[in-house]
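User: Teach me something about this protein's shape.
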Amino acid sequence: MESMLTTTQTARRLGVKPATVYSYVSRGLLTSTKVNRASMFDVAQVEAVARRTGARGAASSVTDCIRTRISLLENDQLHYRGRSVPGLSSTKRFEDVAHWLWTEIDSTGVQFPEGQEIWMALPESATLTDRVRVAIALASVGDPLRYDLDRAVTTAQSLIADVVESLPLVGRPQGTDIAERLWARLSPEPARPDLLNAALILLADHDLAISTMAARVAASAHANPYAVVSAGMGAMEGQKHGAATTIAYRFLQQAESDPMGAVAEQLRSGQPIPGFGHAVYRSRDPRADHLLALLRGEGDLVVDKVIATQRGTFPNVDLALAQFALMFKMPPDAGEAIFAIARIVGWIAHAMEEYREPGLRFRTLGVYTGDRP
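Assistant: First, the predicted structure itself:
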């Protein structure tokens, strides 16, 4: 019997006792169906009662509305703790924004540790994102205090520094800030850490994106910060999330010599143009707008020729990040690495919020649709 709930499941969904479920039956609000002598209830009917009564049961109370003080997405704008993210990226260092997201303390001059060089025996096919993922695991193994959740801020600072240190050098670091250290591992071009610093801040958090949900679920089990970040990484590597910027990069590579041809070929194959539109924003992605505006100050952009061919949509941050990486001769997956390192900040901030909530609260309701015994 598909799409049916047991009495216990129905009670959980409606946030009531089983006896109340039967009172709903006697009042005609629900219809009980006997399956193997057990009372079963139609999911659609239960949901109708939930909407009518304003029920906040197990299936919706947590997953539909998670209280957070970190990011606000509203009217195609993004704010961290009430402050404009594009504004922060123009005036603040990545380290200071990270510390503020973690502690709500507005500081200046926060320094992350030097970071430990993590040796990895990885095949040549390993991507930068592979290195980030392995570095997180190895850093965890080397931290005997990883289960001390009260050290989350210190752990996060060290972890970000270690992850950056794990990437191979392609240039000489020009300073001690994370953006300066990371630039030397991504681009052979003259250092522009100010642009990378802005990108890191723009990507530090984005409300309850799917990778952040994964991180919060891990945190609800009181997983240590390394495990929380690993959970976020697992979701981030999906084609529709962090990997989208690499797909956009490869498209822009083709568009460099023939923008119209690249667009035409994409359309001919029946594939959408990578890096346009967004599930949350309706008319603009403020992160993309800001990063592209900064890049236009560096010269002509391939992406602008592509944007001119697209009507009724807008570029998103995946495309802007791909243009950034392409402009400064970074590897195709550099955008993913930037995304992952930046988002560690948000995952840890959400984990710290989640640690204060009742543990294991993400136990949603499964509707069994297979064969019944």
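Now, about its shape. The CA atoms of residues 129 and 360 lie 29 Å apart. Residues 334-355 form the longest helix (22 residues). If you'd like, I can walk through any region in more detail.
User: That's plenty for now, thanks!
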